[in-house]
UniProtKB/TrEMBL annotation, chain A:
Its main location: membrane. It holds the Pfam family BPD_transp_1. Belongs to the binding-protein-dependent transport system permease family. This is NitT/TauT family transport system permease protein. It comes from Marinobacter mobilis. The keyword Transport applies. PROSITE patterns: ABC_TM1. The chain crosses the membrane at residues 62-84, 96-116, 210-234. One of its GO terms (biological process) is transmembrane transport. GO terms for cellular component: plasma membrane. Keywords: Cell membrane, Membrane, Transmembrane, Transmembrane helix, Transport. The keyword Transmembrane helix applies. It is found in: Cell membrane.
UniProtKB/TrEMBL annotation, chain B:
It comes from Marinobacter mobilis. Keywords: ATP-binding, Nucleotide-binding, Translocase, Transport. PANTHER family: ALIPHATIC SULFONATES IMPORT ATP-BINDING PROTEIN SSUB 2 (PTHR42788:SF19), TAURINE IMPORT ATP-BINDING PROTEIN-RELATED (PTHR42788). This is NitT/TauT family transport system ATP-binding protein. Belongs to the ABC transporter superfamily. The keyword ATP-binding applies. GO terms for molecular function: ATP binding; ATP hydrolysis activity. The keyword Protein transport does not apply. Residues 1-216 form the ABC transporter domain.
């Protein structure tokens, strides 16, 4: 997988600072309220943090992301696994999957709000329905590519159902689960913002809505950047260590000829 | 111990013709034949991997325990050797003992990717032994090994067979010298679709094996 050698540390610190410098220069040149400088945005961020507003709305959004993410992954993995293992199930459910994949997020959200009212379960369900098909498609690919040679081995040595699941299938599925997680987190928080904008009275999406009404670009950028930072933190603190741990066997310290 | 009769096996084209065979406790059989003739297919059928064709077990009615050394080691790459052996029921102590037997003492915490092919194959052999097999199936155990490693492994397998005289073995190979060294009888798979031909070979031919184990072979054709 990773045959390339690791690039040196400085490579991570090029693109973002350049972007920041460009933004600063542009803001300085335009001198408009519609493009506040990074410093103004930082100031807004500090104010919102000090008043407690930022933490409240960030927390609410994070909670919605976590709940809908967990549900979507659980359902999507189960569905994808089932479809990947059984040709019949796949044939039956595939048209539904294609339909759901092509259903615009906005349509699901609006319909659920209309049918269920502007309530929390409608918001969560809308996000889950949007994400499940993506997860299922990725996991189905994984479940289809299981190594039949290892299946035969498990058959001969009479692996129990539990052993098959934990020792045979999940390790093979893991890269696909990680791919679904990566894509999932990014997609889900974007949908959550739309859900909040349309029908909730708290969360980052709601705050963006408020800021939009008064064209408060500084607040829009402050909230967006704050949440991007949170997602980045999850990536660094949870996903990457998890991936490293699960891939230990791929990078054995000492290889023999 | 094991009886098998079937009318043929085909995938896109017919691979195996009608075959009928019996394996008895302690039999040491080498299955010879040109590449692609269907030796591995027959071995898979013996291992119970074929969904259509089932061998019947005779004698004491409990299920036959089978140790299958596949051509590739087929260890779970994301599990250490200890964990791989634990999956077939060997506790730590027994796993360490088995790994010692195949010359891999102290390697229990390694992952299969850290081993050379010869070592991985021996680790897979340890897994075969972990189930205390009644029937040991070996698919080209000496392929892709240099002559020294191959003869080492051959010695190891002979020793292990001598230690458990009631264990039957079927070893797929295309090298008659392997058959001479390991087996008391040779089966040839030939033709297309392939038929089974029994030939006296190895240590003193089938006749001797016959009297020793009361062997009945329906070989040739059904």
């Amino acid at each position: 997988m990773t045959t390339q050698s690791r690039p040196s540390g400085w490579t991570n610190w090029v693109a973002l600072p350049v972007l920041l410098a460009l933004w600063m220069a542009l803001a300085f040149a335009l001198d408009s309220a519609l493009l506040p400088s990074p410093l103004t945005v930082l100031q807004t961020l500090m104010e919102q943090a000090a008043s407690g507003q930022l933490w409240h709305h960030l927390g609410v959004t994070l909670y919605r992301v976590a709940v809908s993410f967990a549900l979507a992954m659980l359902l999507g993995i189960a569905l994808g696994f089932w479809m990947g293992r059984s040709a019949t199930v796949n044939a039956v459910l595939d048209p539904v999957l294609v339909l759901m994949l092509n259903l615009p997020a906005l349509v699901t959200i609006i319909l659920l709000y209309v049918w269920m009212g502007l309530v929390e379960p409608a918001a969560i369900l809308a996000v889950v329905i949007n994400k499940v098909p993506n997860v299922a498609v990725t996991i189905r690919e994984g479940a289809r590519s299981f190594d039949y040679k290892l299946e035969q081995m498990a058959e001969v040595y009479r692996f129990s159902g539990r052993q098959r699941l934990w020792d045979l299938w999940l390790p093979q599925l893991f890269p696909y689960v990680m791919a679904a997680t990566r894509g999932g987190l990014a997609l889900i928080w974007k949908i959550v913002l739309v859900v909040e904008l349309l029908g909730r009275s708290d969360g980052v999406g709601f705050q963006l809505h408020m800021a939009f009404q008064v064209f408060d670009v500084s607040a829009i950028l402050a909230y967006s950047l704050a949440f991007i930072a949170v997602v980045q933190l999850i990536e660094l603190a949870v996903l990457q260590p998890l991936e490293r741990r699960a891939h230990r066997w791929r990078h054995p310290e000492a290889r023999h000829a | 111990m094991l009886e098998l009769t079937f009318e043929g096996k085909s995938y896109q084209q017919s691979v195996l013709g009608p075959i009928s065979l019996r394996i008895h406790r302690g039999d040491r059989i080498c299955l010879l034949g040109p590449s692609g003739v269907g030796k591995t297919t027959l071995l898979n059928i013996l291992a119970g991997l074929d969904t259509e064709i089932r061998a019947t077990t005779t004698g004491p009615s409990r299920e036959l325990r089978i140790g299958y050394l596949f051509q590739e080691p087929r260890l779970l790459p994301w599990r250490t050797l200890y964990q791989n052996l634990a999956l077939v029921g060997a506790n730590r102590e027994r796993a360490a003992h088995l790994l010692g037997q195949v010359g891999l003492a102290g390697s229990g915490h390694r992952y299969p990717d850290q081993l050379s092919l010869g070592m991985a194959r021996r680790a897979a052999l340890a897994r075969c032994l972990a189930v205390q097999p009644d029937l040991l199936l070996l698919d080209e155990p000496f392929a892709s090994l240099d002559p020294e490693r191959a003869s080492e492994l051959q010695g190891l397998i002979t020793r292990l067979l001598d230690q458990s005289p009631s264990m039957a073995m079927v070893c797929v190979t295309h090298d008659e010298r392997d058959a001479q060294a390991l087996a008391s009888q040779s089966w040839w798979l030939e033709g297309s679709p392939a038929r089974l031909r029994v030939a006296g070979a190895g240590r003193g031919a089938a006749a001797e094996a016959d009297s020793r184990s009361g062997l009945t072979l329906l070989g040739r054709r059904a």
